[in-house]
Amino acid sequence: MRYPIIELEDQLAVFTTRLSSVPRHSPVYGQIDRFGFVVASALSENGPSTTDELAGLLSLDRSTITTQLAMLTGREFVAGAVRPGRPDVTVFDLTPSGKAELQRVNSGRSRQIADLVGDWNQRDIRTFADLLGRFNQSIIQRGDGDPAH
Questions:
Q1: List of domains in the chain
Q2: Looking at the predicted structure, is the pLDDT value of residue 23 above 70?
């Protein structure tokens, strides 16, 4: 009999391996790759943000955020503007076309996930989502998901 913690660790290893095997430029993402999607989603949820704010929020280094913002800006999905009263600070936000592309990607992702759990009942889906959310909160609370720690 295996200990539950060992089974959890094994399943997490399989999960992360499978997740990383999803093509970075999946057709679902269209003109936004997976990392650009994460940045665009953060802007959608949190509103206009600086590079440093996004890096802290997403637990990513500043260079990764800068690269993604450059890609999103080049595709006119994000626009930067000087923060009022702070000419040395640029704030980024989604453009209308960026919001439309994010909605399109969200719809595609939802369809993919629905296909994966199509034979699950709603209670199992809710339980899995709740447990995954709880696990993610544990990571954040420990500081493992925060670049400042």
A1: 25-116 (1.10.10.10)
A2: no
